[in-house]
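[Automated response] Your request has been received and processed.

Submitted sequence:
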Amino acid sequence: MNYRHAFHAGNFADLVKHAALIAAMARLTAGRSPLTVIDTHAGRGLYDLSGEESRRSGEAEAGIARLMQAEDLPAAMTPLRDAVVKLNPGGGVRFYPGSPRLIADALRPGDHYIACELRPEEHQALAANLRGRPGVETLCVDGYQLAEQRLAPTGRALVLIDPPFERSDDYVRITETLAAVARRNPAACVMIWLPIKDLETFDGFLREAEDAGAGPLTVVEARMRPLSDPMRMNGCALVLARPPANLQAELEDICSWTVRSLGQDGVSRVWRTG
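Generated structure:
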């Protein structure tokens, strides 16, 4: 997969991930307890869909552009549409928010967000896009390592793991981080984004994740087409450990709308392991 998310910003996978992230953040910030969010692969936080990369891939046109025109959006997806409208007050869909922008917008006084980005040029853009935000810290570091080192042993927390999957060890490091988070703060929520290319890779990861000792996992699958070509990204998944309560119905609505409206003979489902 191409590391530069500008090629993929606003595609179907972003819609699933970001709508689910907004829903999770709404629940995690509903109480009085302060929240810490650690984002292991933050990217730049804001994307210009009029840029060459986005126009070349056409993924935003097949994703967020269609969502903005939809008349049948479920309630779980309207906050994402509202966030895009806010970024484009003149109309259209030029700017699209990455996870860092959505998380920063949801923070309350006293909450803390640590956004990690290892690529220097991407981190520089991230720091500029989030400059001046209270409670926000941007670091040019290995997010896997930082999640284990900086996560507090108690308190409400969310760890977002969304790597580019251009390294051969990403699946292994995700599993190691999942286990480390469970040991360090057994109450912390973890949200993992994954591509779905073939079932063998996906099922293998789920087996390893279960063995990591993180407890039962909630699995959100958006298969956009039959898994007949393992060289393509045929869908995406979210794997959540210790998700906020009462989130499943929203996850189902997000997943089913995306597959039904943007996929081709696809399948959506939300289920639990264990």
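Summary generated for your ticket: The domain at 5-272 is CATH 3.40.50.150 (Rossmann fold). The chain has a mean pLDDT of 94.
If you did not submit this request, please reply to this message.
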